[in-house]
Amino acid sequence: MYDYLKELILAAYPSAEFLLLSLLNQQSISEQLAEVKRNYHILGIAGSLKVETGDIPLFLMQDVQQPEALERFLVQIEKRQLFMQTGNATITDPSLIFINQEVQTRDEAIAFLADKLVAHNYVKPSFLQTVIEREKMVPTCLGTGVAIPHGYFSEVIKPQIAVLLPNQPIPWGEQLTAKAVLLLAFTEDTSQIFSQVYSVISDERAVDKLVEMQDKRQIQKYLDPFYE
Fold first, then answer.
1. What are phi and psi of 109, to 5 degrees?
2. Domains, the chain, ordered by start
3. How confident is the model over 129-184, as pLDDT tens digits?
4. In Å, what is the CA distance from 137 to each residue of 98, 130, 134, 172?
5. CA distance linking residue 217 with residue 222, whole number of Å
6. pTM score
7. Which end of the chain has the lower number of beta carbons within 10 A, N or C?
8. Pairing relation of β-strands 97-101 and 160-166?
9. Alpha-carbon torsion 212, 217, 220, 225, what sign?
């Protein structure tokens, strides 16, 4: 069971290390954790007994055959890593979700969202130009009607997704139109989070539900794997 969990963790975090804590140690688990924290960032703990771990995600090994429990633990690890890297525990800020916005063109939509990310100190002012450069190479609208423009990792200060639901679909090139626009601002370390968002925006029925939503918190919960 341990080897299976270790394989899953290393697939997502190749540089992760696994350290053994013991209930038979003269130090308590809390004391052992405090010692480990001096040298490592602890993403999660797996064990056979439920012990007090504070805000560190705990996975009980007897649940390793339960996909839901395992998926929940992996999401908790991702959320903890995101928070340690950025100070944020979410990748969709409600103040960066815009509903029924009157935007008519692709460039207007990108500039609008990029300006908001800059104003909230999520990206550098130069981020917009890198988004435009990438969009010229390959239009980023999916067949489901969701556009996912994105810039270079180097221009991102803190990872975030700005969301725009226009009052009318926006022409996006190659005969595609965008019913929703997600401007992605990810760092290299957090880019893997997008795979969870993609599972929503690549599903046509899920997108149809998304574009009908009128509540920012509902949209945040729908898109953000770390929303609680």
1. -65, -45
2. 2-86 (no CATH), 94-223 (3.40.930.10)
3. 999 999 988 889 999 999 999 999 999 988 899 999 999 999 998 789 999 999 99
4. 26, 11, 5, 13
5. 9
6. 0.66
7. C
8. parallel
9. negative
